[in-house]
Structure formats: structure tokens, C-alpha cells
Write a structure and sequence with these properties.
This protein is an alpha/beta fold. It is built from eight helices and ten strands.
């Protein structure tokens, strides 16, 4: 990633407006962008009044980039995640994936939730291959793709196991493999490691980075854990609440692999936490 302007870690307001919304416009041809979140707003009706959950949220995730989304409780991260995934319709604005508006769930997007959502009656192999059943691939091609995904997440020897016999970390690796099996343009992840212990979480973070680097996928990752975001992301989109909006975009200009004891790592964590705690 290129160095940042304005400060050692944060893009300037002017640059951010051009690249990630703010008061600027997202370029209409979306050149080089995996996904564009373009002036997203969401208003809910509540007890006869209207509540603005999201207002003018704009940012991009470039092709092959790893972007994390963080923010305080109530900033609308879950609502925004559902809009990006095509599960919830925005009140205004739009999401574009590869230049095409997202209006419903699509196989061009692999979605991984905190809950594993595995089918307990299917084996690991069958869970990973579930999304391929309706594809145009031949049986041999589907089997080869399943083999590749199991090898990618290190679960080849567990292909015949059922979810009940797997640890939490292994279940989430199955979920990631299933999402990647259909070869999506974007991997969209919502707190995927939130249900596992700290040691397993760090292991899964390392494995996810290896998967990302080997596949070159575009990743948008929602988390409440600032250190996790600094560990994983090229850039961090920091949201503010009431209404949910982009407060700042932080460029994580720390070489990988990143060490939590590195002073630069700690500076980025402190900066993001400061932004989350800041009030307008």
C-alpha cells in the first residue's frame, strides 16, 4: 500500500473524500475497485418516528485489498454488512461489486458469519461443496475444487468428519472454505472469529492472511477488535455513531507479518481507539 498523507497513519480529509466518500463522489466507473459503498443511508420507522441508522456511508475496497470495518456499538456495522451482502435494502445509495449494483445475495460474494452455519447432517467435504451443487462445473471439477479448498484450510484429513466432531476453529475454517469454493469476487466477513478463544483467534487470523495472500481475494472484514483489525487490514474504515457514518480511514502502513509488541502496531491501535472514542 502507498504511504498516507496528512499523518503517519491517516489519509488526509481531501484524499479520503476522493477515495472513500466523505464529502466527495465515488468515481462512476469503479476502476480498480472490488466493491464500492456509495453514499449508503438507512432509515428505520420506530414507534411512529424515523431513525437514521446510516448516513452517507462511502468507501471502496480495491481488488485484492483487505479492509476492516470497526466502530462503536450502535454505529450500524451489522446493518451495513447486511446491505453490502444484499440481505437488506438501503434507503438511499448503492453498493456495487465489480461495477454491478448489489440488490440481492450473489455467488460473486462469499459471506462468513460469526456463527458457523454448517449443515450438521453433512460431512466437512459436503459442506464445503454445498455451494457448487448448482454450478455449471462437472462432478470431477467440483471434486477437484473441494480438494483444493480443504487443502487450503488444512482440513483434508477431516473431509469425512461431521461438524459435531470439530472444534470451533475448525468449523470456521470449513465455513471459510465453503465461501471460497464458489470463487467469489469478494469475501465478506462479519466477526468470524468472535466465538473462539483468544489463542484460536490468533491462529485463525494467521491462517486467513495466508489464504488471502495465496488467493488474492478482496476482503471486507467487520470486527469490534481493534488489534485484530490492525493485524489483518491494509486499511481500516472507522465508523462513528448516531447516525452511522465514516469517521476516518486509517492506512495500516506496518510491514507484515505484524507483531503486537511493535511500537508502530501499538500506535495504530491507539489511533483507531481514539477515533472510535471521539465525539463529533
Amino acid at each position: 500500500m502507498a504511504g498516507v498523507n496528512g499523518s503517519p497513519m491517516t489519509e488526509s480529509t481531501e484524499d479520503r473524500g476522493a477515495r472513500d466518500g466523505g464529502d466527495g463522489d465515488v468515481h462512476p466507473d469503479d476502476a480498480g475497485s472490488g466493491v464500492v459503498i456509495d453514499r449508503i443511508g438507512k432509515t428505520y420507522d420506530s414507534d411512529g418516528s424515523q431513525v437514521r441508522a446510516l448516513d452517507g456511508v462511502s468507501f471502496t475496497v480495491d481488488q485484492g485489498e483487505f479492509v476492516c470495518l470497526v466502530g462503536p456499538s450502535g454505529c450500524g456495522k451489522t446493518t451495513l454488512f447486511r446491505i453490502i451482502a444484499g440481505l437488506t435494502e438501503p434507503t438511499d445509495g448503492e453498493v456495487r461489486l465489480g461495477g454491478t449494483p448489489v440488490t440481492a445475495p450473489t455467488t460473486d460474494m462469499g459471506v462468513v458469519f460469526q456463527e458457523y452455519h454448517l449443515f450438521p447432517w453433512l460431512t466437512v467435504e459436503e459442506n464445503v461443496g454445498f455451494g457448487l451443487e448448482r454450478s455449471d462445473r462437472s462432478a470431477a471439477d467440483r471434486e477437484q475444487r473441494i480438494d483444493e479448498m480443504l487443502d487450503l484450510v488444512g482440513l483434508s484429513e477431516f473431509r469425512g468428519s461431521y461438524p459435531k466432531s470439530l472444534s470451533g476453529g475448525m468449523k470456521q475454517r470449513v465455513a471459510i472454505a465453503r465461501s471460497l469454493a464458489v470463487d467469489p469476487e469478494l469475501l465478506l466477513m462479519d466477526e468470524p472469529f468472535g466465538a473462539v478463544d483468544a489463542q484460536t483467534r490468533e491462529m485463525l487470523q494467521r491462517e486467513l492472511l495466508e489464504v488471502w495472500q495465496s488467493t488474492g481475494k478482496t476482503v471486507c472484514f467487520v470486527t469490534h477488535d481493534v488489534a485484530e483489525a490492525v493485524t489483518l487490514a491494509d486499511r481500516i474504515v472507522v465508523m462513528a455513531a448516531e447516525p452511522g457514518r465514516v469517521a476516518e480511514v486509517v492506512d495500516v502502513d506496518v510491514d507484515r507479518p505484524r507483531k503486537r509488541g511493535d511500537p508502530a502496531f501499538g500506535e495504530h491501535v491507539a489511533r483507531v481507539r481514539e477515533l472510535i472514542g471521539a465525539r463529533p
